[in-house]
Amino acid sequence: MGKIRSDSLTNPVANSIFLLRVDALYDLACTRVSGITQEKEYENIMEGGVNGYVHLREKPVSKPNTLQIERYVGEKYFDPLPVGYQSTVPLVLYVGRYLNNFNHPTMTFSFSGITVISKKYGELDAEKGGLMTVTTEIAYQEVVVTKSEKDVPRKPWAFGRTAKKYTGSGKRRAVYNKDELRKKDMEALSRRWPEKRSARTVKKF
């Protein structure tokens, strides 16, 4: 029995951090992406005699693969994917582990031969408030999935386990204001006050 890699069990990829890039130019903020499918169609060929199984032979595709993209309709709404739009440039979906780090995504989905076939706007309800959405359905010919070989999750920050000193481990560290007075500075300034004078009588130094 093969050994199962521990990172596939302890470091799964979240489904909430992703970015859609259109025409290698527009980055779209999406609320949901669904319908990613890799599929081929087959026909059944029955075997004669006493065989208890059938043969499968690949046949031409009879229906397109479709992708659904849901977005919010904003005030400055721009739609680079109108109905009927076709593009020879692949539609790229990046999936990552961390925000603002899509230069090194964990997974990349590249959709080729895309055609926008429909749009569906969300319901309007005067009794229940919500956000206006639009769902774009896109037909594509092929999707290529790429998994990064350099996907190394960051080591989480944690306290050390030494008996006398609790130091943090990992890449994170405390952030402080560089202009803030430190303890040693406060001690040095306190020595500059005369012993038998109040704060009101001491001139500025």
Straight-line distance between termini: 77 Å
In DSSP terms, counting alpha (H) and pi (I) runs of 4 or more, how many helices?
2
Helix percent band: under 10%
Number of strands: 14
* Uncertain regions spanning at least 5 consecutive residues: none
Strand content: 25-35%
List the helices and strands and how they pair.
Elements: H1 7-10, E1 18-22, E2 26-28, E3 32-34, E4 42-46, E5 54-58, E6 65-72, E7 86-87, E8 91-95, E9 107-112, E10 114-121, E11 133-140, E12 142-147, E13 158-159, E14 168-169, H2 183-190
Antiparallel strand pairs: 1-2, 1-8, 3-6, 4-5, 6-11, 7-10, 8-9, 9-12, 10-11, 13-14
What does this structure look like?
With 205 residues, the chain is mostly beta strands. Helices cover 6% and strands 33% of the residues. The chain is built from 2 helices and 14 strands, in the order αββββββββββββββα. It has helices at residues 7-10, 183-190, and strands spanning 18-22, 26-28, 32-34, 42-46, 54-58, 65-72, 86-87, 91-95, 107-112, 114-121, 133-140, 142-147, 158-159, 168-169. Strands 2-1-8-9-12 form a 5-stranded antiparallel β-sheet, with no helix packed on it. The chain has a 5-stranded antiparallel β-sheet with strand order 3-6-11-10-7, with no helix packed on it. A two-stranded antiparallel sheet has the order 4-5. The termini are far apart.
